[in-house]
Specification:
Blueprint lengths: L1 H11 L8 H20 L10 H24 L4
Helix pairs in contact: 2-3
């Protein structure tokens, strides 16, 4: 259990060991989209969330993960 927690902490942390809010938001958005996709495969279409809501979570997730990647590529100005 300790190894799993340290894995997630290192996955969500920057090089300095500080947890990145962009990575956390991106990871949580991915989890929400994955769970929504799995649940929608077992339920009727009338129970599904609106496509606008799913698209909004998708764009937030993509933006958060793209922002993290862009920070790594371009470097931060300190």
């Amino acid at each position: 259990m300790k190894n799993i927690l340290s894995f997630f902490k290192s996955m969500l942390s920057e090089a300095e060991g500080v947890i990145s809010s962009k990575r956390v938001i991106g990871f949580l958005g991915f989890l929400v989209l994955a769970v929504t996709m799995i649940l929608n495969s077992f339920t009727d279409i009338s129970v599904a969330p609106s496509s606008d809501l799913v698209s909004a979570v998708e764009f937030i997730t993509i933006g958060a993960l793209f922002g993290t990647s862009l920070d790594k590529i371009m470097g931060k100005n300190k």
